[in-house]
Structures are given as structure tokens and as C-alpha cells.
Specification:
The complex is a heterodimer of chains A (about 375) and B (about 425). With about 375 residues, chain A is an alpha/beta fold. Chain A contains ten helices and 18 strands. In chain A, a hairpin with a 2-residue loop joins β9 and β10. Chain B is an alpha/beta fold and about 425 residues long. Classes of the chains: A alpha/beta (about 375), B alpha/beta (about 425). Chains A and B meet through α6, β12, α9 and β16 of A and α13, β24 and α15 of B. Bound molecules: flavin-adenine dinucleotide (2 copies).
Chain lengths: ~375, ~425
């Protein structure tokens, strides 16, 4: 007799794992099916910055909600998750950006997010390795950094303590009405299926509007206290969300291991994961403009990853518009580590049939059925 | 960024690389450039000792190279590919782009380390590592040293340390006397090697040479104080100042891997002409399989000739190479590692030194990638060059994911 699970989750990235932790806690019989190894997809390539974003109300709501959930969960996270509330400093390079700092501060303040404006002097005190003559910055002290690979494992450990089952090295090839079909022909029976296969979620459902947005990162050897906050240039959003051109932005992260992690780049329409020197160079140059002393640091590794991006930069969270037994938790672009916890919460609410703490309709997969998203 | 242009680019100035360079220079008018990360040519065995080169053979080769005006770029470490026909190297003066028509990889080998309790204590060294330290000035006079591990390297190192005034308490070789004898009997086929072996043994005559024996533990409060050695099930404790241990060699295949050459059983796959699975990319010396100096020299000659399309002449060396290859195979078989060594580490024994990852933390994973992603094994500055070969032996894991830079490189050298 084949056992039937309440819920089968496809993908043990940070999203699928967070959903498994949350749903198993509600008493559902959950199975997580992962084609390769835990967190080996996009999750392993990301930066681990837990950041409250202000580019849209919907993005703000999900990141802010998630950040609070991380804060709460951090109390029980083991040390190897390297959770550290280092804060973000949005660095302001010129006078033009001064107005932007004010706008940003107002935005956060109105929504009860703590911030602090740093002038030139206090910015240099906070981060002595930044170049001189930067105008200042905005500190968001509750943002944090996490080692998302161990966090993913931690989520799964919790799920398994709640009775969830984990299958690794098993690829789902088809979603059925009563479960999923694996590559080896086996059928895993489940009443509900969550497609949390990151970028690959599209391989199982061609109607998903997800594209790859390639990113490069560089990590250095250990340099104690070289950088103390996550530093991001204020112009970040301008470059992050231009939907056509390749872009780079200054984005530097302190790791608990004393390494410095340097990002970030965004490219569309690139399918192979090899390192693109031209864009990597542009990205490093950008970082050197802000932090000239990075020049002498040694890089030990450069890698790339693919953010699963949607047309409106918001994830798919919720029931599939046509398939009643299928739910989606995918398309988290460059914020999936942050928003994993909020996603799991919203999806759990929907499956149980209760209201969420934040308005979750904006992430609903059915939004793409509307005219404004019609494909040309 | 500086640019250099050559016809034949050789990475590695050890026996294999120098021999390939000579072979090109003597048989053509093409330009040759040798790039090596050390201040002088010579590679592992011929690297000069305080500026003096001992081996007359090496001297001759280096002299010839200098006469032939072969271009040499020392202190330059190749860390990445620029495009199909150029590589990038870091030098003390910044990065250099090296453009070529054909490429010969001669990256040599490094020692294999295996973890056992106490192996990370100060004064526990790699055998070749200690030799290199002494060459660059460390004194071992009157130091009590245990040499352990496996392979002919142990004898060479012991003899060298002894000549520098060290007291070699004993040499502990993990392979069996039976295997050694069988190997020794095969030596008649290579008279020169045989001669070398005799010479070595005579100098070490009064040194205890234990076979079937290995160090199971190194002890000491802050520094090494003693080692525990087993032989045939019997345990003994030996007080000493230094432990020099090495478990044979691991080929440096990272550059070949990064370029996309096919690897087989841990070695770069080459055809009879030393060409890899990439057209116009050749590989010689240890990366094609641990084989020793003479095989490296012969492979170098063949690759040099093949690279300049003198294939008929290269063929004349095939018989010689086959003979040396048989010797190399016998050598590798003789010093293959015994399974008991897999059970030396305990839960707390560090496996990955860069990231302080213990055996207990990784033993339940299924692959090197898993151990890396979850426990940071191999994520540090050596990028798994040390723990990768240890975990391959301990768990049968493959670490064939190589990403540039293959050596740490200053950020400024990635951009200018
Ligand atoms: C360079 C870069 C920097 C980033 N920085 C940050 C950051 O600082 N902060 C932040 O919040 N986010 C960041 N992100 C984004 C974040 O990494 C992603 O949004 C997030 O990891 C997505 O997680 P996921 O679980 O959806 O996808 P994945 O991690 O890709 O997980 C999907 C899993 O599904 C498995 N799978 C696929 N197909 C199948 C199948 N058919 N059957 C079974 N299993 C399958 C895959 O093997 C994979 O393990 C960054 C991303 C990149 C690329
Ligand atoms: C630690 C050690 C000690 C040894 N001691 C002895 C001994 O005492 N007696 C003996 O008979 N044999 C010894 N050997 C074996 C001996 O090294 C080989 O048999 C022989 O030297 C092989 O020559 P090769 O040219 O293939 O490699 P090597 O001599 O190793 O030469 C390779 C050269 O390439 C350089 N290189 C590698 N990668 C790069 C890169 N990316 N960029 C730039 N340069 C690079 C290396 O630094 C090195 O100089 C030793 C080997 C090792 C590893």
C-alpha cells in the first residue's frame, strides 16, 4: 500500500524547505522531493542578505514581514547558520542621492522600520574602508546576514522533527492529479503539490513566466573587521530592476568567517553559468570605486547564480490558477532568502484557509492572467 | 594589463616543462614561454637551494634553456583563462595576459595529506614541505625527526634531512615489505633508478625503516612531543621534535580541469602524443599520472615535438616512455594506500584546515559538494586542494568542480 502524503513539495531550496518546516508544524504529512542535494540550486549561490526593501509596497510588505520572522527564528538557530544582525547601510555617493536618502528614510519611518541617517563623518566611522568624500548613508540596523545553506538545512531538520520526509536525488518529471511522477517511474501520492523548484519550476509547468537573471559574486580570504555592515549603493534599485541592460552595483557583505563577499551583477538572456569576465570586472571595479582598499584583498572564488525572475519582480505564492491541487512558491528573484519565511507563512495560511497577516493577493499566481500581463 | 605573445606557452618550469621547452627550441624556431610561480626554474626536485642548483643534469638543462633564449616568466601564477587562446597570471607587478597558439600544461604534483589525530599540531610537516622549509633556511640540526607516510619521497626527504644534521629516528612506511620487495625486483628494468635506490639506502643504512607501519596519532600540548606508531598490530610511542609525513603525490589538475580537459581516474587524459582532449592543449609530467622525473622528461620531449608537428620524431620516444610508464605503474601500485588509514581520524580530527572542519561534521554526507555546501569543507583559501584528496581517499568523493581563480588573486589583478 502506497502511502498518500498531504503535501508533496518539489525542491529543497530555501523556499521549499521553509514551506516544509511551516506546513509540517501544522500537522500536515509532508514530503520534500529534491532532484540533487539540499540547497544546491540558486540557494547555494546567493548572498544571504536579509533586507527590507522599499521598491514597491508589495515587496516591502513581504520583506518586512519576513525580516521579523527571521529575527524570531534566529533565537533557536544554531551557530553555523551565521545569523548576524549587522544592518544595512545604503551608501550615498553624491548630492543627487541626498534626496533619495530622505525619501527612503520617510518611507521606512512611516512603516515603523528603524533607520538612521549617517553624515559623511559617521559613515566613515562606521566603515573606515569606504572611500573619502562619500556624502553619507542610511543605516537600517535590523537587517541581517545569514549563511543560507545551513539555514535551509535547519528548516529541513525542523520539518523532519515534525515528521516530514525528505527524498534527495529524486527528480520529479510530472505533476499529476494525485501526486507526482519521479524520473525513475515511481509515483509519490499526495493530495496537494507545491512547486518550489526555483528556476526549474518552469520545466514542470510551461505557463510560468520565469526567466533567469544571472548574477556574479566574488569572495575573499579572511580580513577581520574589513567591513562591518552590508553596504549597498543607493542607486542599487535603479540598476537592479532595469529589465533589459546588464547592470552592476556596489554590494559588499561581511561574513562571520571574516571573509568579504562582493556583488552584484544582473544579466538577462544568459543561459550558461560560466564566468563572464567583462561583467565580473565591471562589478569589481564598481566595488573598488566605493572601497578602494578592496584592491589588495585576495579573492578565492568567483561564481555565478541564476535568480528566478518574474515580470513584476514579485514571487508566485499561492494556488495555481487552473490546477486545483497545485500551489506555487517560486520566482523569488534576488530576495528569496529573505522572503522564504514570509512565503512559507502566506502559503500555509492559504492552504489552511485563513487570512494572512499581510495582504497576500498581490503574490497570487492568478495575477498574471490579467490583461496587463498578456504576452505580446 | 601587460600582454605577452608566444607560439608555445608552457605552464610549469619543473622537469616536464623545461624538457618540453627544450624540445621545442631545439627542433624549431618557434617562440616558447615558460611560466612558473617560483622565483627560479627547476620545479619540486630541482628548485635551487639558496640559489645553488645541485643536480648536474638540471644545471645542464637550465643552462641550455638560457642559451636558447627561451623566454621565462617567474613568480607568475596562472589563475584563470582569459579566452580560448590566452591565460591570466598574477605576478608581483600585476596581472599578465599570455596569448599563445599552443599550450603545454606541466603543473606538477603536490603532496597528499591524510588526517589523523594530532596532524594539525605545530611541528607536524608534510615531508616535501619540511624539505622545502629547510631549503629556504630552517635549521633541523640535531632535531629528532620521524618520517612517515608512503612513497619513495620519504627516503629522499630522510636522506636530505640527515645531510642537514637531523637525527632521523625512524622512517615509517605504510606499505608492506612484500610489496616493496616485488617492486625492488622489478627495478632491474630501470638500471638508473636502481642505482639511485641503492645510493639512497646506503646513506640511510643505519636508519630504522619500518614497513607495514603508520602513525596513528601525534601528541603534544602546544607543539608536537611524540607520535604513536603501529607496526603489525603493535603500538609504540616515539618522542620527537618534528614529524615529516606525506602520503605520496596528487597531480595538480586544476588548470586542466578549468580549461575543460577530460580527467580520468584523477589524471589528465592524454593521447600518445601528450595531447589532451582539447585540441592544441598538451599535458606532461605528474598531471598525467604520478610517474617521476624521468617519465616527466620524456613526456616533455614528446609534447614539445608534437606541438611543433614533428610527430614522427616524437614516435621514436614511445618505447622509452612505455618502459618508464610501466615503472610508474609499479610504483603507484606499490605505494597504494591501505584501507586502515581511512579509520585514523576520530570525530574531532580536523579534515579541512582552512575552515576547521572536523571529520565528525562531514562523515555522514554523500558527496564533496554536500560537505562543502553544508559544512564549508573545501571552501577556504586552498579551495579543497588539500582536503579534496584526503576526502577522496576517506569517502571516495570526487572534487572536480574547479572555478577560477584556481589560486587566490588580488582583486586589483582581476580588473586591470
Ligand atoms: C548572485 C545572487 C545573489 C543573491 N543574493 C540574495 C540575497 O542577498 N538575499 C536574498 O534574500 N536573496 C538573494 N538571492 C536570491 C535567492 O538566492 C533566491 O531567490 C533563492 O535562493 C531561491 O530559492 P528557491 O528555493 O526558490 O530555489 P533553488 O534554491 O533553486 O531551489 C530549487 C530546488 O529545486 C530542485 N529541483 C528543480 N527541479 C526539480 C525537479 N524536477 N524535481 C525535484 N527537485 C527539483 C533544485 O535542485 C533546487 O535544489 C540571490 C541570488 C543570486 C543568484
Ligand atoms: C613536495 C614534493 C617533493 C618531491 N621531492 C622529490 C625528491 O626529493 N626526489 C624525487 O625524485 N622526486 C621528488 N618529487 C617528485 C618530483 O617533483 C617529480 O617527479 C618531478 O619533479 C615532476 O616534474 P614536473 O615538471 O611534472 O612537476 P614539478 O617539478 O612539480 O613542476 C611543476 C611546476 O609548475 C609550477 N606550477 C604549477 N601550477 C602552476 C600555475 N598555475 N602557475 C604557475 N606555475 C605553476 C609549480 O610551482 C612547479 O614549479 C617531489 C614532489 C613533491 C610534490
Amino acid at each position: 500500500m502506497l502511502m498518500t502524503f498531504d503535501i508533496a513539495i518539489i525542491g529543497a531550496g530555501i523556499i521549499g524547505s521553509a514551506c516544509a518546516m511551516r506546513l509540517s508544524k501544522e500537522g500536515f504529512k509532508v514530503v520534500v522531493i529534491e532532484a540533487n542535494e539540499i540547497a544546491g540550486g540558486t540557494t547555494s549561490t546567493g548572498m544571504g542578505h536579509i533586507v527590507v526593501m522599499d521598491d514597491s509596497e508589495a515587496q516591502f510588505a513581504l520583506t518586512n514581514y519576513s525580516q521579523k520572522l527571521w529575527e524570531k527564528l534566529a533565537e533557536e538557530m544554531p551557530r553555523d547558520c551565521e545569523y548576524e544582525t549587522c544592518g544595512t547601510i545604503w551608501v550615498e555617493a553624491d548630492d543627487e542621492e541626498m534626496a533619495e536618502v530622505r525619501r527612503k528614510k520617510d518611507f521606512y519611518e512611516k512603516r515603523n522600520v528603524k533607520t538612521e541617517i549617517l553624515d559623511e563623518k559617521s559613515l566613515r566611522e562606521a566603515e573606515p574602508n569606504l572611500r573619502e568624500n562619500l556624502i553619507g548613508g542610511l543605516l537600517v540596523p535590523n537587517d541581517s546576514v545569514v549563511y543560507q545553506l545551513c539555514a535551509t538545512q535547519f528548516f529541513l531538520d525542523k520539518a523532519m522533527q515534525n515528521g516530514a520526509k525528505l527524498l534527495t536525488g529524486k527528480r520529479v518529471v510530472e505533476i499529476l492529479e494525485n501526486g507526482v511522477r519521479l524520473e525513475n517511474g515511481d509515483l509519490i501520492k499526495a493530495n496537494k503539490i507545491i512547486n518550489a523548484a526555483g528556476f526549474w519550476s518552469k520545466d514542470l509547468m510551461q505557463d510560468l513566466r520565469i526567466v533567469k537573471r544571472k548574477g556574479h559574486l566574488v569572495i575573499t580570504e579572511r580580513y577581520p573587521n574589513f567591513v562591518k555592515h552590508q553596504l549597498v549603493e543607493l542607486g542599487y534599485l535603479k540598476s537592479a530592476h532595469s529589465n533589459d541592460a546588464d547592470s552592476v552595483a556596489f554590494n559588499v557583505q561581511p561574513r562571520m568567517t571574516e571573509q568579504v563577499l562582493i556583488g552584484s551583477s544582473r544579466q538577462f538572456g544568459v543561459d550558461d553559468k560560466t564566468i563572464d569576465y567583462e561583467i565580473a570586472k565591471r562589478m569589481i571595479k564598481r566595488a573598488l570605486e566605493y572601497m578602494p582598499k578592496l584592491r589588495k584583498l585576495s579573492a578565492t572564488r568567483v561564481w555565478t547564480g541564476f535568480r528566478p525572475a518574474t515580470p513584476d519582480n514579485l514571487p508566485y505564492i499561492g494556488q495555481h490558477p487552473k490546477l486545483e491541487n497545485v500551489y506555487l512558491a517560486t520566482g523569488h528573484e534576488g530576495l528569496g532568502i529573505t522572503t522564504s519565511l514570509g512565503t512559507a507563512e502566506i502559503l500555509t495560511d492559504e492552504i489552511i484557509g485563513r487570512d494572512s497577516e499581510i495582504d497576500s493577493k498581490v503574490y497570487s499566481p492568478s495575477r498574471f492572467e490579467k490583461k496587463e500581463f498578456a504576452r505580446e | 594589463m601587460d600582454k605577452m605573445q608566444t607560439d608555445i606557452l608552457i605552464i610549469g618550469g619543473g622537469a616536464a616543462g623545461m624538457s618540453a621547452a627544450m624540445s621545442v627550441a631545439e627542433n624549431s624556431n618557434l617562440r616558447v614561454l615558460i611560466v612558473d610561480d617560483n622565483p627560479t626554474l627547476g620545479g619540486q626536485i630541482w628548485r635551487s637551494e639558496m640559489g645553488k642548483i645541485k643536480s648536474p643534469e638540471a644545471k645542464k638543462l637550465i643552462e641550455k634553456i638560457e642559451q636558447n633564449e627561451i623566454e621565462i616568466l617567474n613568480k607568475a601564477q596562472v589563475f584563470a583563462q582569459n579566452d580560448e587562446k590566452s591565460l591570466l597570471a598574477e605576478t608581483p607587478n600585476g596581472a599578465v595576459q599570455m596569448h599563445f597558439e599552443k599550450l603545454i600544461l606541466a603543473n606538477g604534483a603536490r603532496e597528499r595529506f591524510l588526517p589523523f589525530p594530532g596532524w594539525t599540531l605545530p611541528n607536524v610537516f608534510g615531508a616535501g614541505g619540511l624539505q622545502a622549509l629547510v631549503k629556504s633556511g630552517l635549521s633541523v640540526e640535531n632535531k629528532r625527526i620521524v618520517v612517515s607516510g608512503t612513497g619513495p619521497l620519504l627516503l629522499a626527504v630522510a636522506e636530505y634531512l640527515k645531510s642537514k644534521g637531523a637525527i632521523i629516528l625512524l622512517i615509517s612506511e605504510q606499505t608492506s615489505r612484500m610489496k616493496l620487495l616485488k617492486f625492488g625486483l622489478g627495478l632491474w628494468r630501470i638500471p638508473k633508478k636502481f642505482f639511485e635506490a641503492i645510493k639512497l639506502q646506503s646513506k640511510l643504512q643505519r636508519t630504522v625503516y619500518l614497513t607495514n607501519s603508520f602513525v596513528i596519532k601525534a601528541e603534544g600540548k602546544e607543539n608536537l612531543e611524540a607520535v604513536n606508531i603501529v607496526q603489525n598490530g603493535k603500538n609504540r610511542r616515539v618522542e620527537c621534535d618534528f614529524l615529516a609525513c606525506g602520503f605520496h603525490l596528487v597531480p595538480n589538475i586544476e588548470l586542466a580541469l578549468m580549461l575543460g580537459c577530460e580527467i580520468m581516474d584523477g589524471n589528465v587524459l592524454v593521447d600518445k602524443f601528450q595531447e589532451t582532449t582539447l585540441e592544441n592543449v598538451f599535458c606532461v609530467g605528474e598531471p598525467t599520472g604520478i610517474g617521476g622525473v624521468e617519465l616527466s622528461l620524456t613526456e616533455g620531449k614528446i609534447a614539445g615535438l608534437s606541438a611543433i608537428d614533428k610527430k614522427e620524431k616524437a614516435k621514436e620516444l614511445f618505447t622509452q616512455k612505455e618502459k618508464l610508464q610501466r615503472f610508474a605503474n609499479a610504483l603507484n601500485e606499490t605505494f597504494s594506500l591501505r584501507d586502515e588509514l581511512q579509520s585514523l581520524p576520530n570525530e574531532e580530527t580536523i579534515v579541512c584546515r582552512c575552515e576547521d572542519v572536523t571529520f565528525g561534521k562531514i562523515k555522514d554526507f554523500n558527496s564533496f559538494r554536500e560537505a562543502k555546501l553544508q559544512a564549508r569543507c573545501g571552501m577556504g583559501s586552498c579551495q579543497g586542494k588539500i582536503c579534496g584528496s584526503a576526502t577522496e581517499f576517506l569517502f571516495d568523493w570526487k572534487n572536480e568542480s574547479v572555478r577560477p581563480p584556481i589560486f587566490p588573486v588580488k582583486l586589483e589583478n582581476l580588473v586591470d
